[in-house]
Amino acid sequence: EAGVTQFPSHSVIEKGQTVTLRCDPISGHDNLYWYRRVMGKEIKFLLHFVKESKQDESGMPNNRFLAERTGGTYSTLKVQPAELEDSGVYFCASSQDPWGSAPEAFFGQGTRLTVV
Amino acid sequence: SQKIEQNSEALNIQEGKTATLTCNYTNYSPAYLQWYRQDPGRGPVFLLLIRENEKEKRKERLKVTFDTTLKQSLFHITASQPADSATYLCALDPMDSNYQLIWGAGTKLIIKP
User: Fold this and answer.
1) Which sequence spans correspond to the domains of chain B?
2) A5-115 CATH
3) E-strand stretches of chain B
4) pLDDT of B98 above 60
5) Cross-chain residue pair B89–A99, CB shorter than 8 Å
6) Looking at the complex, does the CB of residue A111 fall below 8 Å from at least one CB of chain B?
């Protein structure tokens, strides 16, 4: 069974440009999460999808970040325009049943975003 | 403020010994706490989950304890091996959260041959 995959693995963009990160969750996982780890800091929650609906987006830093999950399958996270402080590793995770018997989350390898 | 604390300094353990990592939290009443392993350049990998009504959980050489009075979880690796070297993260889901995992910064474990 394929795990969570993220694309690209690395991205270097200039300040002011736009970047779109993609996440393909494990098949059958309705719950999809985005997290970010800024250098030297702990991982921070960004948002949570249940199927195509945003269950919780309270962790999104500002309105330059837009996450979508059309059709409840893969998800994209777009940063527009990117700023220097957006640099970090963006992780996507999926889970089967966060409030029940299988709450553990499975993570992708992350996308390392560098804004210069 | 609400936060999770893990030992920020690397933990060096001799191969074969038991490694014990600590996770302390404040101002939470988590429904459960999770431990993950992260290797450089990779995403966190789920290891164990322990619920608030469980005192201890085991999986092969791994053991997790959860003391809600002390607000602390301990993560043990017995018969440690160099391959166990990694950063170990604890994360919890506050009871009133819609699965917003709150993460510790992680402890780097180094197992020396």
Assistant:
1) 3-112
2) 2.60.40.10
3) 3-6, 11-14, 19-26, 30-38, 45-51, 56-59, 62-67, 72-77, 86-94, 102-103, 107-112
4) no
5) no
6) no
Closest chain A C-alpha to B92 CA, distance in angstroms: 11
Q: Band of the pLDDT at A111, cuts 50, 70, 90?
A: very high
Cα–Cα–Cα angle for A85, A91, A94, nearest 5°? 145
Strands A111-115 and A10-13: parallel
Assign residue B84 a region: left if phi > 0, alpha if psi is -120 to 50, beta otherwise?
alpha
- Per DSSP, the three-state class of A65 is strand
- From residue A68, alpha-carbon distances to A52, A72, A77, A95, B35 in Å are 8, 9, 7, 17, 28
What percent of chain A has pLDDT above 90?
79
Instruction: Tell me what the mean pLDDT of segment B57-65 comes to.
Output: 96
Predicted confidence (pLDDT) at residue A32 exceeds the cutoff of 70 = yes
For residue A105, the model assigns a pLDDT of 85
Minimum Cα–Cα distance from B35: chain A residue: A104
Q: Which fold has domain B3-112?
A: Immunoglobulin-like (2.60.40)
Q: Which residue has the higher pLDDT, A91 or A1?
A: A91
